[in-house]
Amino acid sequence: MLLRSMEWTAGTAGRAVRQHASAFRRESSRNAPMVVLVFAYAAAVGAAAGIRMPSMASYFVQILRELCLYGLVTVTVLGIAYCLLVARPASPIRYFANAIVSASRTAALGRWAARLWPFALLAAAFSMFKPTISAHFSGFAWDAQLAELGRVMHFGIMPWRFLQPLFGHPWITRVLDVNYALWFAVMWMFLIGMIVFCRDEAHRQRSLMSFMLVWIVVGTCLAVAFPSAGPCYYGKFIAGPNPYAELMDYLQRTHDSIGLMAVDAQTALWNDYASGQPRHGISAMPSMHNAVAALMVFACWRYGIWLRLALSLHALLVFLGSILLGWHYGADAYVAWASAFILWRAAELPTRWWIAHLDQRGSERLIPQPA
């Protein structure tokens, strides 16, 4: 009896594995444009920076594990929130049990994994390439020009001087600092949410493709074209008067008083860079914080007023923080916004064509063929 039970369990597990593997292959095929794009990107940055593929593969596996863990936590938290605030079932435990059974029967895990892994490869390639920008591409050559551009764009006044009289209070700075640090969690929650919860395939693929393009075009191509360190490091690379010295003094005093994660991060990044073998990299232009924050607003605009307002407020605070925490020049944010909008719009038609192509191919397979 025990042996028969074990055989039944093994057979059930085997069928489940095959079912999820089949769903993984089908979903990977439907995501072919993103798969091709991320492999091309990884190969290009690897060749440009001399990154060994075994090292990138190892880092990819590490990031994939972390993303799976974060995805599990995110799905659990969002599922609990939906259960308690929206569904409100009589038995939450039974509700979750049914959801888990449904995910298993529909091979959802295979589909989710197929949507997730390209972004682990994207993150691995980007993270390994970013530290090489200053070493391989003319150092930080654009800081002086970007600082001057910001002054000209704001009528002869540095952007931070515009904002400091309004927001230059230690506790307001602390709010901006916390929001800026939360950007990573919000970004990954957005990614996991699109992968797991978005049922509109066209919108999901457009959102994920735009997200990928932002990291490739904004975070890589434009960063290489306009290498810069940012206001917090201006005095370390540019000789002469430092127009950001007063801002950095204020941030240091605030850090000494109440603590700022931005100051700690800037110090850690500089020590990493000064070591001669940087692992993280410094890049200001364009601002990835602002680009991704704007993209999340565009992609989630359809999901109701509260999410729209929350992400818009987050994006506004990210912008203020990018300037007032000394991370970015004003032009960094404006270029990031414009680029994110252009890429969001540009991804629409190709995504629609690809989904229509998949639907047409699927309907052709259903047409009876002559014997």
From TrEMBL:
Query: What stretches pass through the bilayer?
Result: 32-51, 63-87, 108-129, 180-198, 210-229, 287-304, 311-329
Q: State if Metal-binding is listed as a keyword.
A: no
> From which domain of life does this come?
Bacteria
Where in the numbering of this chain does the Inositolphosphotransferase Aur1/Ipt1 domain appear? 145-344
**Assigned GO CC terms:** membrane
List UniProt keywords, sorted A-Z.
Answer: Membrane, Transmembrane, Transmembrane helix
What InterPro entries would the database entry show? Aur1/Ipt1 (IPR026841)
Record protein name field: Inositolphosphotransferase Aur1/Ipt1 domain-containing protein
Which source organism? Plantimonas leprariae
